[in-house]
Recover the amino acids of this structure.
């Protein structure tokens, strides 16, 4: 047991040295941190360990990380801000403590809840998936775990298909659970409402509305074709009537001959001679032809 504690503590030495190098903690504070970690390590590796001991250890590490961030933000103009091991080592250590806690107490829901909550807060998506997978394998009758996993899949990852698969799998293990059935129905209704809202925002139409629109379009085209045919028939009839009127008003050949015969005789002497009528002079026609 002592060797295991020493092994875990030796792994924290590089990060503590980095904290001291950046002047975020002095030697006295580093010694106190090492002493507290040693105490917690002995406590969680003992036989009488309880889930509360792991949570207390995690709380200490969280407070340490908060203090590190505050000092870093306050002193970042005077210290080395280049990324180093101390920037992520504490969060990684917290995850390691949670993993050890759930391995020791796999049926303790509070540990699982705090573990998943911490992963969500830090955006550790891969760790969350792995945690939910292990939790559902160990506790397939835990309804809250199934609902939490489906909610994470639907709301955080926007994966409706994955959430539906989780809920359907949960119903295979817990088919008598009324709460699961109600939440499954609620999920489907919520999914439909989101689809309708999305269609409304994007000005999309449903399949039924699309079929109705196509039917209306066909009917409109039929009406237009009928109207066009009626107009064409009316125009043909009007053309026929106008041609009939023209033919009706045109005189016959006999009428033309009769009208020509009834014309009076022309008196050529009325035109005069070239001397008193310039229109009869030849020079006028020559000038016209030269212009043309």
């Amino acid at each position: 047991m002592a060797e295991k504690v020493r092994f875990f503590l030796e792994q924290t030495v590089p990060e503590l040295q980095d904290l001291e190098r950046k002047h975020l903690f002095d030697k006295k504070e580093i010694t106190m941190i090492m002493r507290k970690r040693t105490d917690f390590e002995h406590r969680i590796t003992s036989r009488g360990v309880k889930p509360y001991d792991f949570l207390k250890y995690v709380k200490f590490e969280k407070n340490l990380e908060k203090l590190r961030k505050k000092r870093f933000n306050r002193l970042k103009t005077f210290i080395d801000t280049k990324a180093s091991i101390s920037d992520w080592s504490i969060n990684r250590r917290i995850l390691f403590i949670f993993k050890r806690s759930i391995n020791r107490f796999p049926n303790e829901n509070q540990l699982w809840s705090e573990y998943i909550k911490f992963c969500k807060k830090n955006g550790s998506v891969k760790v969350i998936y792995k945690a939910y997978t292990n939790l559902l394998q160990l506790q397939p009758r835990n309804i809250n775990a199934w609902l939490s996993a489906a909610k994470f899949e639907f709301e955080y990852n926007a994966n409706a298909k994955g959430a539906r698969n989780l809920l359907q799998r949960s119903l295979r293990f817990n088919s008598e659970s009324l709460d699961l059935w109600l939440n499954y129905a609620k999920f489907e209704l919520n999914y439909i409402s989101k689809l309708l809202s999305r269609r409304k925002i994007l000005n999309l139409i449903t399949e039924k509305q699309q079929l109705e629109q196509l039917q209306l379009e066909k009917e409109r085209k039929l009406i237009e074709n009928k109207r066009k045919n009626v107009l064409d028939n009316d125009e043909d009839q009007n053309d026929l009537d106008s041609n009939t009127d023209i033919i009706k008003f045109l005189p016959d050949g006999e009428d033309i001959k009769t009208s020509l015969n009834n014309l009076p005789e022309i008196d050529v002497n009325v035109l005069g001679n070239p001397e008193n009528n310039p229109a009869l002079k030849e020079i006028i026609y020559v000038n016209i032809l030269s212009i043309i």
Notes: Confidence is low (pLDDT under 50) at residues 246-250. The CA atoms of residues 102 and 111 lie 7 Å apart. The chain is about 75% helix and 0% strand.
